[in-house]
Amino acid sequence: MRSPWHSPAPPRGPRRAAAVPARGRGPLLHPGAWWVWALGLATAASRTTNPLLLALLVAVAGYVVAARRSQAPWARSYGAFVKLALVVLVIRLVFAVFLGSPIPGSRVLFTLPQVPLPGWADGVRLGGRVTAEGLVFALYDGLKLAALLVCVGAANALASPARLLKSLPGALYEAGVAVVVAMTFAPHLVADVRRLRAARRLRGRQDRGVRGLLHVGLPVLESALERSVALAAAMDSRGYGRSARVPAAVRRTTAVLTVGGLLGVCAGTYGLLASSGAGYGLPVLGAGAAAALGGLWLGGRRTVRTRYRPDAWGLRAWLVAGSGAAVAALMVRAAARDPAALAPGVVPLTAPVLPLWPAASLLLGLLPALVAPAPPAVAPAPPAAAPARSAPVSARRGERPVDPVGRLGRGPVKPAREAPPSPREEPS
Question: Residue 13: which region, alpha, beta or left (left: phi > 0; alpha: psi -120 to 50)?
Answer without folding.
Answer: left
